[in-house]
């Protein structure tokens, strides 16, 4: 199943959709089946937590409800309330050949305010600084677990999205540079795990303004999907809606600028177009310092 969150217009309500071919069916009424919760709210995304129970109802609704072209709607992040974003560090065979290993490097983190969908685009709040694109597979956790062995890890996965792990370059901590609003683009929808026979062998391509920037395969990751889930769960509890960005080939990342158009396509997961926009520029206590003092900061 392919599940999206979308709007018909920028001011309209966010709906839940099932995507079939190039059409999207409105199944928003399934949200009425979600349990009522009170503070303190349970960890995890409530929709993802209940996904398996909701799926047959969504299938039935998709048969009955009108559909509209996917191209006519605004696609938002398919995971409404991600609990945390984890990013695979150095998780590519090229890094392994250079002596690095993701298990030694650990994980990088991205604040969940960075969550965005294709229609949100990417806003470069500090356009005078360099921001790199990093296309990868995004793994959406489907149920709670910790100390999960790789042999059982896929049982904890709800599905996959295309991920754009945008990262501002500079002397700040990497997690800071990853955490600007819109720097965690996911889409075009959530493809459930059962639709992807081998997530460790998906080819993908990212174009910027029509030019190939990243052409690779998930087969070149050091830690595949199961290994990444095991790695993350070895140090923390994973909850439904948590997202693991897989990591990508370092030398294929590159800068984007306001006005650029990114087009990301991954085998089995679809494709999405993401606009890059400019922001207001840096406004911090460092403003007014001599350029030499701020050149790398």
From TrEMBL:
The GO molecular function terms of this record are: hydrolase activity
Spell out the InterPro entries in the cross-references: FAH (IPR051121), Fumarylacetoacetase-like_C (IPR011234), Fumarylacetoacetase_C_sf (IPR036663)
Keyword terms, alphabetized: Hydrolase, Metal-binding
Superkingdom field: Bacteria
Q: Where is this region: Disordered?
A: 277-297
**Where does the chain cross the membrane?**
none
Q: Which residues form the Fumarylacetoacetase-like C-terminal domain?
A: 104-276
PANTHER family, per the entry: FUMARYLACETOACETATE HYDROLASE DOMAIN-CONTAINING PROTEIN 2A, FUMARYLACETOACETATE HYDROLASE DOMAIN-CONTAINING PROTEIN 2A-RELATED
Q: Which family does it belong to?
A: Belongs to the FAH family.
* Protein's name according to its UniProt entry: Fumarylacetoacetate hydrolase family protein
Q: Which organism is it from?
A: Novosphingobium album
Q: What is the lineage of its organism?
A: Bacteria, Pseudomonadati, Pseudomonadota, Alphaproteobacteria, Sphingomonadales
